[in-house]
Amino acid sequence: MIITTPHKPSPELEDYASSLARELGARFVPRKQESLTRLRLRYGDGRLLVADDRGLRYYEESDDPLYFHPSMAYVRVKRMRKGEHDPLIELTGCKPGDHVVDCTAGLASDAIVFSYAVGSCGLVTALESQPVLFAVVREGLQSYHTIHEDVNGAFRRIQMHLADHNDWLAAQPDNSVDIVYFDPMFRRPMHDSSSIGPLRGLANPLPLDPESVAHAVRIARKTVVMKEHKDSPEFERLGFTRKHANKIAYGVIDTR
Ligand SMILES: C[S@@+](CC[C@H](N)C(=O)[O-])C[C@H]1O[C@@H](n2cnc3c(N)ncnc32)[C@H](O)[C@@H]1O
């Protein structure tokens, strides 16, 4: 993967792009006067991450980039600001001050909703195994600005880690967090899902490992929750009780 900047970057932006390349094991290429198409051809690599003043944009073959946008998370948080309930927050039993581990960060929509719910005395740890998604979303959470300072605060407090949750969970002590959440790529993709569309192809497609669910149960003081299609056999395979079934359902394991 190539990491570059727009034409005429500031020295700070160029430094940032080059340190990001070191962090992700990618190749930093100064942009100079080159077009993105020329860079792709010159380096024989179709994967391009461009660091600009608005954040990171990832291009793969096409000119239609992946970038961070809170989309539905912002709608859900605005409803919570008005005192409405969020189904995920309710069924996880999430309260201010909790430590939530989101094992499948993706575009961080659910992590944002959890972060708003736990507030400034709580903590959301969000794990993502795919370097491009990790970088785009970590940067977006730090720089995306809404008109609501409390919502911006919820973005900034999320602690993102580039990690496979299988390894991360196994290394945690017993009863060390409140809630563990899994939203893996569905076994049967829902092709009408506009929120997942942009990350398909980049995301880790592997099914949940029962051993990871066992570690989640060991470390969670309240609940372990998984999201899947309502007809998915994953709930039974992994020992979750299916709740709140629409097209999408949540499975809950209560560890209290
Ligand atoms: C369906 S998306 C999650 C969407 C997310 N809940 C949101 O609100 O934006 C699943 C994400 O989990 C990541 N993932 C899958 N398996 C993982 C693993 N073992 N460790 C860390 N991340 C993983 C995928 O790369 C993908 O980005």
UniProtKB/TrEMBL annotation:
Pfam families recorded for this chain? SAM_MT (PF04445)
**Which top-level group of life is the source organism from?**
Bacteria
Classification via InterPro entries: 16SrRNA_methylTrfase_J, SAM-dependent_MTases_sf
Name the Gene Ontology molecular function terms of this record: rRNA (guanine-N2-)-methyltransferase activity
As given in the record, the signal peptide range reads none
**Name this polypeptide is given:** SAM-dependent methyltransferase
> Which gene produces this protein?
ypiP
